[in-house]
Amino acid sequence: MNAEKFSRIKNQSLEIQSLIRQGVRQGVSELIDERNQLLQQWFAEMNELINLTNEQQLFLETLLRDEQLLLNELEQEQADIGKQARGRRQLNQYTRIADQ
Hints:
The structure is a single chain. This protein has 2 helices and no strands. By secondary structure, the chain is an all-alpha fold. The longest helix is centred in the middle third of the chain and has 72 residues, at 28-99. It has helices at 3-21, 28-99.
């Protein structure tokens, strides 16, 4: 958030309110237009920041989901390799027993 811009908006709004309470009408319309323009810029920047954050969140969620799938595949491969190694050990034991 652009703190300087927000501070300007806040100060201008307070000034506008003060002038209106005092009954001043001359120049207030221009101040309101200037403040509204700053508000539009500030909201556009905030919207851009929110969208960027949403995009980052979606990216990270997708990344985590993909990594979880890869991790699951790796765990399955390791389990399969373990089963194959146990099978070879058992085969070697049976072969030794048969050779005796």
